[in-house]
Specification:
heterodimer, A: alpha/beta, Rossmann fold, B: alpha+beta, Cytochrome-c3 Hydrogenase, chain B, 3-stranded antiparallel beta sheet, 15 helices, 13 strands, 44% helix
Chain lengths: 145, 431
């Protein structure tokens, strides 16, 4: 199992995925934190990998809600905050079109509240980060068994 | 009032451009009554918060203006500051800066040619549709982009918002072997770029030409990146220090980005078409021959054909990177000393989208007193509206949705970077 956390540092709750990846790595899991160009994601896994991708999302659900897309790709409303129209969702769609998705892909979206540069992590998101890490640890022990 | 039919072309969120903008065109009968390229991305205030910072911080701060063209911001900043403090860099460092810029041009042009612009010509909504039918084309684009990113990473310390460039040189320069390892990839990139010239030349282009004033740098010995005089096809020939005597920025109500215009004149065009038309003789023979082979000769006045010109510039950037790496000898020191010194200076460099002007004044403690930044998209914004006004008049008989699609394409000819352009909003309070 490989954990990939995406997001932007110093952008409030948008760093949730990065923090999950960094903490999972500290716990000895295979995990990478990705910032910047979402197209780099396509080179971050191989065809055989079992990937969990974690990113902050905004769907209107209560802050800290963990959404899971298992075998599916979340659709972005619009590509306003991204590099020339490429966000994580578009990068994953492109990977699918190019037959470059990993063998297994689960996307965990942590509902964020504050995405401003002046904000830290919301308490609800901090709680969701802990929950996600516990879940991944549990998933990993099952996959080992 | 007569009952002339009117229609409105409206795109609320422009796709496949960087940043947030929208388009509004009003057509009354056969007449285009109004065109507004609205940039509503919030102002960024970089010029304001550079004030009071030490000059050594400027290149790192300005790199944050854009994720696609941070090298351009770093290069214009360090050259302007070196001009302000009369600092002269090692010739080997100068070559490394050109290599750094090659990386940015390769990744930016590859992204735009294949993934943002080509879908327009091939009838796809976006690159995902293109990838479904032409997987190999998009795979090439991704590999090219990765090669450009790799150069930026090796030269700048990381791919996005690099950190190695500084006033006087670089904090660290690469070892010979580090650069030589990139040669096989660059050989592939050169061949792929040559194919891109051929491939883009087979696309179908609207019959649309304009009488532009093309503005670009021109250097006596090379295709321009960091140095040269600013010239145009209408007789402009100035030093960067004279830029503000010849160009001004004006605020329009509908845009958070200032419009740059020629003083006493109107719009002008910067970017690949301008560079190609004004510097064709400075392209390496491999790029000249590739252009000639597909019938591309200056002056190119059809902005839709900028996709071929970008491919030619991709050939240039790959060939230039190969040339620099093959001859590379590390400089004796990565940078020259840069003691605090009061002064004022300007510089213009060629971002992938066109000229980028920086001006700084520094006090005796090395702190920035004033900063001015004019990004390429600010310089092209008025010209984009002029193109749309003319182009939309050809589309009055078209169904609105098709005309809208065509007008979006006309904007993407410029590969606008709206985030970069929204740098300052002048506010006038009327009482």
């Amino acid at each position: 199992m490989k954990i990939i956390g995406c997001g932007a540092r110093n952008r409030g709750d948008d760093q949730a995925g990065l923090i999950v990846a960094e903490r999972m790595r500290e716990l000895g899991f295979e995990a990478e934190a990705y910032t910047g160009d979402p197209l780099r994601l396509l080179d971050s896994w191989s065809a055989d990998d079992d990937v969990i991708l974690v990113d902050a999302v905004q769907t209107g659900a209560p802050a800290g809600t963990i959404h899971i897309w298992d075998g599916d790709i979340p659709r972005s409303a619009e590509s306003a905050v991204s590099s020339h129209g490429f966000d994580i969702s578009k990068a994953l769609e492109l990977a699918r079109a190019l037959h470059r998705l990993p063998a297994s892909l689960r996307v965990y979206g942590i509902e964020g509240l504050n995405f401003s540069q002046t904000q830290g992590l919301s308490p609800e998101v901090l709680g969701a980060i802990d929950t996600a890490i516990r879940q991944f640890g549990h998933l990993s022990s099952h996959s080992v068994e | 009032m007569t009952g002339r039919a009117s229609k409105t072309i409206r795109v609320d969120t422009l796709a496949r451009v960087e940043g947030e903008g929208s388009l509004f065109i009003k057509i009354e009968g056969e007449h285009v009554a109004d065109v507004k390229l609205k940039i509503y991305e919030p102002p960024r205030m970089f010029e304001a918060f550079l004030r009071g910072r030490h000059f050594s911080e400027v290149s790192d701060i300005t790199a944050r203006i854009c994720g696609i063209c941070p090298i351009a911001y770093q290069m214009s900043a360090v050259h302007a500051l070196e001009s302000a403090m009369d600092i002269h860099i090692d010739p080997a460092v100068r070559l490394l800066r050109r290599l750094f810029y090659c990386g940015e041009w390769i990744e930016s042009h590859a992204l735009h040619i294949y993934m943002l612009h080509a879908p327009d010509f091939l009838g796809y909504e976006d690159v995902i549709g293109l990838a479904r039918d032409h997987r190999e084309v998009v795979e090439k684009a991704l590999r090219l982009k990765k090669i450009g990113n790799r150069i930026v990473q090796v030269m700048g310390g990381r791919e996005i918002h690099p950190i190695s460039a500084t006033v006087g040189g670089f904090y660290k320069v690469p070892a010979k072997q580090q650069l030589r390892e990139m040669l096989p990839d660059l050989e592939w990139a050169l061949q792929t770029s040559l194919e891109a010239v051929q491939w883009t030349s087979t696309l179908e282009f609207p019959k649309f030409e304009q009488d532009y004033e093309f503005v670009a740098l021109r250097h006596p010995g090379e295709y321009p990146f960091n140095e040269g005089r600013l010239v145009s096809n209408r007789g402009l020939d100035i030093d960067a220090a004279e830029y503000e005597d010849n160009f001004s920025e004006v605020h329009v109500k509908h845009s958070n980005a200032l419009h740059s215009v020629r003083r006493g004149g109107g719009s002008y065009l910067v970017g690949p078409l301008a560079r190609f038309n004004l510097n064709f003789d400075k392209l390496p023979s491999v790029a000249q021959e590739a252009a000639t082979k597909v019938g591309l000769q200056p002056p190119v006045k059809n902005p839709f054909r900028s996709i071929i010109v970008r491919a030619v510039e991709l050939v240039f950037a790959c060939a230039e990177a190969l040339r620099i790496i093959q001859a590379y000898e590390p400089p004796s020191a990565p940078r020259v000393e840069t003691p605090n010194r009061a002064g004022a200076g300007q510089a213009i460099t060629e971002a992938p989208r066109g000229i980028l002007y920086h001006r700084y004044a520094i006090d005796a403690n090395g702190l920035v007193l004033t900063a001015k930044i004019v990004p390429p998209t600010s310089q092209n914004q008025r010209r984009i509206e002029d193109d749309l006004r003319e182009y939309a008049s050809h589309l009055v008989a078209w169904p609105v949705n098709e005309a809208t699609w065509k007008c979006e394409q006309a904007i993407r000819n410029y590969d606008p970077c709206i985030s970069c352009a929204t740098h300052f909003l002048k506010v006038t309070i009327e009482k």
